[in-house]
Amino acid sequence: MDRKSFIKLLATTPLAMNLNQLKKVTDTFAPSPKMPVVFIGHGHPMNALFTNAFTHTLGGIGSQLPKPSAIMMISAHWLTRGTYVSVNPTPPTIYDFGGFDDRLFEIKYPAKGHPALAREVTQLLPTVREDAQMGLDHGTWTVLKHMYPQANIPVFQLSLDFTQPLSHHYELARLLSKMREKGVLIMGSGNVVHNLGRLNWGDINAKADDWALEFDMYVKKHLQNANAPALLDYRRFKAGQMAVPSEDHYLPMIYSLGLTDASEPVTWLFEGFQYANISMRCYKIG
């Protein structure tokens, strides 16, 4: 039964109709078309204020995607012991940084949460726990500010359990892929090359080091071929050790790989570097 027929049925059905009967009817709905998965290399928080090639590209991505019922963001900046999903209906804008331009602290991203869809995650994965306090961290709002400036799409976040190996996150993502059939746009926000100790803070356009370029192309190649083992075992390469000194910004990319199938095409949305050694690579799968 399609939704149009369902509406007609409701118009002719007594209000006393048993809720279990309604559930049986709605269970016959075809799933929503599978949403793509997006990864954004978010870089410096100041990109929330900047107008540059990267932010210009972000500004066009939202209009190119099918409109989601909600966005589930997997950000490098929500690290936890155990995995949590945010069920806050009114998530605040979080300023999880310091020492930057005061104008950043004036930005608000007033998107609503979506507790009902967030709780669908806990049904798929009973080990995931609810968090009713979490807001939108800067890996989320600095990106969505450009992509969806009207903040009119509900947003909730999934945390990253930093105590678990990459393989755990990859398998978790495989189990979460059903959320794509519920109209949820799942976005990873991190950076495939992110070495803060080797940045040129004084020049956003500084030339990237060879090891950073090498690893960025390594990731591109293996994403294109859906080669999960190569991306999970990146540390056997010296360039990988330099590019990923900690896995917080790398993990959202692993989720994008686990959430998708090898047959789905990869579209490169943006390629480039900022401050020498932050890869701003962005892509869509599906």
Description:
There is one protein chain. The protein is α/β, with parallel strands linked by helices. It folds into 2 domains: 1-30, no CATH class; 34-285, LigB-like (Protocatechuate 4,5-dioxygenase, Chain B, 3-Layer(aba) Sandwich). Helix content is 33%, strand content 17%. The protein has helices at residues 3-11, 19-26, 53-64, 115-124, 138-147, 166-176, 210-224, 228-232, 238-243, 251-258, and strands spanning 37-41, 70-80, 84-86, 129-131, 155-161, 184-190, 266-270, 273-274, 278-279, 282-285. It has a 6-stranded mixed β-sheet, with helices on both faces. Helix 4 (115-124) links the parallel strand 3 and strand 4. Helix 3 (53-64) packs across helix 5. The longest helix has 15 residues, at 210-224. The chain is globular. Mean pLDDT is 90; it is low at 1-30.
What key attributes describe this structure?
286 residues, alpha/beta, Protocatechuate 4,5-dioxygenase, Chain B, six-stranded mixed β-sheet, two-stranded parallel ribbon, 10 helices, disordered N terminus
How would the blueprint of this fold be written?
Layout: H1 3-11, H2 19-26, E1 37-41, H3 53-64, E2 70-80, E3 84-86, H4 115-124, E4 129-131, H5 138-147, E5 155-161, H6 166-176, E6 184-190, H7 210-224, H8 228-232, H9 238-243, H10 251-258, E7 266-270, E8 273-274, E9 278-279, E10 282-285
Parallel strand pairs: 1-6, 2-5, 2-6, 3-4
Antiparallel strand pairs: 1-10, 7-10, 8-9
Helix pairs in contact: 3-5, 6-10
